[in-house]
Amino acid sequence: MKGTIIFATGNAGKMREIREILGDTGLKILSMKEAGAETDIVEDGDSFEANAMIKAKAVARTLAERNDPACGDVIVMADDSGLEIDALGGEPGIYSARYMGEDTPYSVKSGSLIERLAGVPDERRTARFVCAIAAVLPSGDTVVTRGVVEGRIGYEELGDNGFGYDPIFYVPEYGCTTAQLTEEEKNRISHRGRALRAMREELKKRIE
């Protein structure tokens, strides 16, 4: 495949994962900052898929406004992800990053969720990490993929290898939280990794 992927993120850790999983496509991969395509984005969708598409389309518009011929082979991608807890009716869901305020430390957010689950037994602490990835192709067509990893909410924060809600998200098949997994293990099972691999297959079908 030829061309460039511009991903609507400034997160260095996320970009490492994206480059690792999409590296074999042959496409050049840049963050929107590296591409000089940063723009203000209002994420007001009602689903992970909707918010991912809002971000991808906003960056695509920013690039189109340049009238740069080099943008002709650009694929713009964006993701939206979060944690859904069944016993809390799917909360925090699409508001995962904004739960209790965007500037609130995740240790405080996680502590609040654990408190809200006080007395809830293991079998009802089921939860999942969800990631939707949206792409705007050079043709103007759009593609959305989704990745999910199932688990449950633990009783305390464990592990130092993750971020966000990783220290409270327990994965039964590994017997630990996602913050206790190695980077390789996490990439293999992560919701973003699964969505990225699904996107890679979609791109292979659609892009020469």
Can you tell me about this structure?
With 208 residues, the chain is of the alpha/beta class. The protein has a single domain, classed as Maf protein, CATH 3.90.950. Helix content is 30%, strand content 23%. The protein is built from five helices and seven strands; from the N terminus they run E-H-E-H-E-H-E-E-E-E-H-H. A seven-stranded mixed β-sheet has the order 2-1-3-4-5-6-7. Helix 1 packs across helix 5 and helix 4 crosses helix 5. It is globular, with a radius of gyration of 18 Å.
Please outline what is shown here.
The chain has about 210 residues and is an alpha/beta fold.
Keywords, separated by commas or semicolons:
about 210 residues, alpha/beta, Maf protein, seven-stranded mixed beta sheet, 5 helices, 7 strands, about 30% helix
- The proportion of residues forming helix, as a percent range, comes to 25-40%
Question: What's the CATH class, please?
Answer: Alpha Beta
Q: How many helices?
A: 5
Strand order of the main beta sheet, please?
2-1-3-4-5-6-7
Overall mean confidence score, pLDDT: 91
Strand content: 15-25%
Number of strands: 7
Regions with pLDDT < 50 over 5+ consecutive residues?
none
Order of helices and strands: EHEHEHEEEEHH
Task: Give a topology summary.
Blueprint: E1 4-7, H1 12-22, E2 28-31, H2 48-64, E3 74-85, H3 106-116, E4 126-136, E5 142-153, E6 169-171, E7 176-177, H4 183-189, H5 191-206
Parallel strand pairs: 1-2, 1-3
Antiparallel strand pairs: 3-4, 4-5, 5-6, 6-7
Helix pairs in contact: 1-5, 4-5
